[in-house]
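can u do me a favor
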C-alpha cells in the first residue's frame, strides 16, 4: 500500500508540471474532453444494457414491432458510440503528443542545463542510458498514465452505475438453489465482488515479479542498443584492431542478458495468461450459472437474464481493472521508477556543484583568471592538484606541461566550471568568453558550416568569414563544401579535425582559449603555422596550451609545469624556456 502511495506521489510529481505549464489550457481542455467522452461511453453502455432486456424480451414474446423499434434504438446508440470512440482516441493522441513534447523539452533543458549530462557521468552513471529515458520512457509514461487514469475512472463510474442495476436485478431474480429461494440483498453484486477480488489477488500473486522483470528488460535492451551505437561510432578502430571477434563476444553477452531476462518474462507471462484467460472464460458463464435457477423457475424472463449477465460482466470487468491492466500497470511502474531515477540523477548532479566541498567558479572584476586555495580531487576523493595564488594573466600565452595523468585536462575542466570535485575558488573575469579545444574536437552531424561554428547557430557567421578561417588553418578544399552534410568526426583525419577546431576558435575569437593538445596530431611545421595564425588573428586572446613538444615553447610567454608534491601535483611557473627549480610557485 505504501508502495502504491509512493508510486502515485511520484506520478503526480512527474505529471502535474505539464498541467501547470504555459500549455495548460490546451492540456486541461483535452484531458477534460477525453474524460467527458469516456463518461459518455459508460452512459451508452448503461443504455445498451437496458436495451438488452427489452430486445431479448421482444424476441421471447415474438413481438415484431418491438423488435424493429429496438433495432432502430440500437443503430442510434451504436452510431453515437462509434463517433465518441473515434474522437476519444483522436483527442487522447493529441493530448499525448502535446504532453510528451512539453516533457521532452523540459527534460532536455534539465539534462543539458548546467552541464548536468556531464556531471551525471562523473557521478558514476546513476541513471543508465539517459537517451532512453528521454526518448522512450517519456513516451511510455504519457501514454500509460493517460490510459490508466482514463480506464480507472471509467471502471469506477461503470462500477457505480452497474452496481445499482445489478442490485435491482438481484431483487427481480432471487437466488434459487435446489428449489429454495434465498433473499440476499444484492447477491449478484456480492458474487461479482468476490469473483473480482479472488481474480485480483491471484493475478497479483503470480504477476508481481513481472514489475521488476520489465524494468530489467528495458535496461538490458537499452544497454545492448548503446553498445551497438558504440561499435558504430568506433567502427574504424575496431576494424583496424580486428576487434570484431571481441565485439561479437561482448555484444552476444549483452544480448544474452536480454534473452535470459525475456525467458523469465515468458514463463511468468505464461502463468499469468493462464490465470487471466481462465478468469475471463469463467466470467462469461458465471452469471448465467447463478441466474439460471431463477430463469428455469420462471422467476425472470430471457431479457432479465441477458441483462443480468451483461451487467454482471460490466461490474466484474470494472472490478477486474487491475487483472486486465496488470501488464500495463507493471510496465507503468517500471517506467515511473526509471523517470524518477533520472530526475533524481539530474538533481543530484545539480546539487553536486552546490555542495560545500566543491569548487567555486566565480566572476570578478579583474582581467585575469585566479586560482585561490584550489584543491582538485578525483571523484573518489583522492587529491589531484593543489594551486594557490596562481593567475592566468590577460593576453599572456601559457604552456602547461606535466606527466600524463597529472591532471592538466582536469584543471581545464575545473576552469570551465564542469569539474565539481575539490575545494577552493576559481575567479574568472566577468563576462569573459572562454573556449576549450580538446585533442578530439566535437562536430555535430550536419552541414560543415554548422560543424565549424558550433555551438553558435549555423548562420551566426557569414560564409566568407568561415571560408577565410578554413583557408587560414590550411583547409582550402573544405571551404567549398560548407553546405555538405556529413559526420565530420568520422570523415576527417584527426589533424584536419584539429585544424577545423582552430578555425572555430578564429571565428569565435574568445578572450580565453584553452588548447588541450589541440594541435598534437599535426606535424611540427603544421602546428607552428597554426600557432602563428592564432597569434596574428587573435592578438588579444589569452592562450593556455597543454602540449608536450618543445617546439611549442617558442609560441608561449610562460611555461607552467605540474610537479609531484606529496600525494598531489602542484603548479610551478618555470618562465620562458627556463629551468627554474621547482618550488617557485606563483
Ligand atoms: N571522469 C573521471 N572519473 C575518474 N577519474 C578521472 C576522470 N577523469 C579523469 N580522471 C583521472 O584524473 C587524472 C587526471 O586526468 P587528466 O585527464 O586531467 O590527466 P592529464 O594530465 O590531462 O593526462 P594526459 O597528459 O595523459 O592527457 C587521471 O588519473 C584520470 O584517470
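np, heres the sequence
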Amino acid at each position: 500500500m505504501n508502495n502504491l502511495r509512493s508510486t502515485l506521489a511520484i506520478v503526480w510529481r512527474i505529471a502535474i508540471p505539464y498541467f501547470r505549464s504555459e500549455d495548460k489550457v490546451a492540456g486541461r481542455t483535452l484531458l477534460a474532453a477525453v474524460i467527458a467522452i469516456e463518461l459518455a461511453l459508460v452512459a451508452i453502455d448503461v443504455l445498451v444494457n437496458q436495451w438488452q432486456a427489452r430486445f431479448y424480451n421482444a424476441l421471447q414474446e415474438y413481438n415484431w414491432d418491438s423488435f424493429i423499434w429496438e433495432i432502430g434504438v440500437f443503430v442510434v446508440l451504436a452510431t453515437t458510440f462509434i463517433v465518441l470512440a473515434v474522437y476519444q482516441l483522436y483527442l487522447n493522441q493529441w493530448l499525448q503528443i502535446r504532453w510528451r513534447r512539453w516533457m521532452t523539452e523540459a527534460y532536455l533543458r534539465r539534462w543539458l542545463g548546467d552541464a548536468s549530462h556531464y556531471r551525471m557521468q562523473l557521478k558514476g552513471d546513476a541513471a543508465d542510458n539517459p537517451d532512453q529515458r528521454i526518448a522512450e520512457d517519456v513516451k511510455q509514461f504519457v501514454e500509460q498514465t493517460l490510459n490508466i487514469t482514463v480506464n480507472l475512472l471509467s471502471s469506477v463510474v461503470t462500477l457505480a452505475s452497474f452496481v445499482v442495476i445489478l442490485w435491482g436485478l438481484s431483487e427481480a431474480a432471487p437466488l434459487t438453489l435446489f428449489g429454495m429461494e434465498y433473499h440476499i440483498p444484492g447477491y449478484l453484486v456480492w458474487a461479482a465482488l468476490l469473483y473480482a477480488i479472488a481474480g485480483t489477488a491471484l493475478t497479483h500473486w503470480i504477476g508481481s515479479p513481472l514489475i521488476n522483470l520489465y524494468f530489467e528488460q528495458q535496461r538490458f535492451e537499452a544497454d545492448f542498443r548503446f553498445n551497438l551505437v558504440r561499435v558504430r561510432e568506433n567502427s574504424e578502430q575496431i576494424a583496424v584492431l580486428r576487434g570484431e571477434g571481441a565485439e561479437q563476444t561482448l555484444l552476444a553477452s549483452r544480448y544474452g542478458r536480454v534473452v535470459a531476462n525475456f525467458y523469465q518474462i515468458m514463463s511468468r507471462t505464461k502463468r499469468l495468461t493462464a490465470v487471466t484467460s481462465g478468469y475471463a472464460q469463467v466470467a462469461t458463464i458465471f452469471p448465467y450459472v447463478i441466474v439460471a435457477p431463477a430463469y428455469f423457475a420462471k422467476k425472470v424472463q430471457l431479457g432479465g437474464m441477458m441483462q443480468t449477465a451483461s451487467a454482471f460482466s460490466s461490474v466484474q470487468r470494472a472490478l477486474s481493472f487491475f487483472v486486465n491492466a496488470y501488464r500495463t500497470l507493471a510496465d507503468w511502474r517500471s517506467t515511473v521508477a526509471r523517470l524518477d531515477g533520472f530526475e533524481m540523477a539530474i538533481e543530484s548532479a545539480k546539487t553536486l556543484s552546490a555542495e560545500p566541498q566543491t569548487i567555486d567558479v566565480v566572476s570578478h572584476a579583474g582581467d585575469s583568471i585566479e586560482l585561490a586555495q584550489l584543491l582538485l580531487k578525483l571523484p573518489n576523493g583522492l587529491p589531484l592538484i593543489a594551486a594557490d595564488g596562481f593567475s592566468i594573466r590577460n593576453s599572456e600565452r601559457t604552456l602547461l606541461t606535466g606527466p600524463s595523468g597529472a591532471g592538466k585536462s582536469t584543471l581545464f575542466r575545473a576552469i570551465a566550471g564542469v569539474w565539481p570535485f575539490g575545494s577552493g575558488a576559481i575567479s574568472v573575469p566577468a563576462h569573459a568568453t572562454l573556449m576549450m579545444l580538446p585533442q578530439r574536437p566535437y562536430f555535430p552531424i550536419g552541414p560543415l558550416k554548422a560543424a565549424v561554428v558550433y555551438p553558435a547557430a549555423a548562420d551566426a557567421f557569414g560564409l566568407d568569414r568561415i571560408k577565410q578561417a578554413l583557408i587560414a588553418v590550411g583547409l582550402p578544399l573544405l571551404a567549398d563544401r560548407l553546405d555538405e552534410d556529413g559526420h565530420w568526426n568520422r570523415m576527417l583525419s584527426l589533424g584536419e579535425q584539429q585544424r577545423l577546431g582552430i578555425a572555430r576558435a578564429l571565428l569565435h575569437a574568445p578572450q580565453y582559449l584553452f588548447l588541450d593538445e589541440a594541435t598534437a596530431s599535426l606535424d611540427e611545421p603544421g602546428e607552428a603555422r597554426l600557432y602563428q595564425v592564432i597569434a596574428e588573428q587573435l592578438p588579444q586572446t589569452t592562450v593556455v596550451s597543454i602540449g608536450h613538444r618543445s617546439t611549442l615553447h617558442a609560441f608561449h610567454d610562460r611555461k607552467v609545469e605540474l610537479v609531484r608534491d606529496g600525494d598531489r601535483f602542484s603548479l610551478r611557473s618555470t618562465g620562458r624556456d627556463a629551468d627554474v627549480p621547482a618550488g617557485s610557485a606563483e
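The pocket of adenosine-5'-triphosphate is lined by residues 122, 378-379, 384, 402, 404-410 (CB under 6 Å). hope that helps!!
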